[in-house]
Amino acid sequence: MMVEKKSKKITTRVTEIVDRKTGEILYDEGTTVSFEREPDYVKLYLNDISRLMNLTVSGHRTLFALLRKMNFDCEIILTTSVRKEMVEGLVMPNNTFKHSIMDLVDAGILFRKANNHYLVNPKLIARGSWADIRKIVLTISYSEDGRMIQTEFQGQGQPRIPFPEDNASNVS
């Protein structure tokens, strides 16, 4: 069982009222705000998805890079400049990057919506506030039709899922 590490970010706002003649501080107020950081098991979850979907190392690296560009509607739009930036950041040939994206589509992790416009399978990966998604449950079901990998996000709210319910990931 993983224990969630908590990290606090402290922001301090200080308001002072100073007597200009004497330099005496007449009023002093400070505010501190803290919040939890996203737990490490999100990265472990993505590693597990990569292994279960038999992604290559370049496919796994491409998935991580693409997810950084995913919006809250589970869309990734690869403009020429974004694609170039990713290829350079991954230190990967452009053809390898393109093949990795095709592998992600073939695996059911991405859906091609239009040229250079992809939707991430929300049954596997969704974007939302960590306050809304407090637990990720990965289920693998086996049947005559093959292996089905499905994710459930549990928390106070739910991430926005822009696909119909029948878009589970079926993997043979």
Could you characterize what this model shows?
With 172 residues, this protein is of the alpha+beta class. It has a single domain, classed as Arc Repressor Mutant, subunit A (Orthogonal Bundle). It is built from four helices and eight strands. The strands form three sheets. It has a three-stranded antiparallel beta sheet with strand order 3-5-4. It has a three-stranded antiparallel beta sheet with strand order 6-7-8, covered by helices on one side. Strands 1-2 form a two-stranded antiparallel sheet. Strand 4 and strand 5 form a beta hairpin. Helix 2 crosses helix 4. The two termini are 29 Å apart.
Question: Any key phrases for this structure?
Answer:
172 residues; alpha+beta; 3-stranded antiparallel beta sheet; disordered C terminus; disordered N terminus; Arc Repressor Mutant, subunit A; single chain
Write the layout of secondary structure elements.
Blueprint: E1 11-18, E2 25-33, H1 41-52, H2 57-67, E3 75-77, H3 80-90, H4 94-106, E4 110-114, E5 117-120, E6 135-143, E7 146-154, E8 169-171
Antiparallel strand pairs: 1-2, 3-5, 4-5, 6-7, 7-8
Helix pairs in contact: 2-4
How do you describe this structure in short?
With 172 residues, the chain is an alpha+beta fold. The chain contains 4 helices and 8 strands. The two termini are 29 Å apart.
- State the end-to-end CA separation: 29 Å
Mean pLDDT score: 75
Unreliable residue runs: 1-8, 158-172
Q: Which superfamily, in CATH terms, is the homologous superfamily?
A: Winged helix-like DNA-binding domain superfamily/Winged helix DNA-binding domain
Rg over CA atoms, rounded to whole Å, is 22 Å
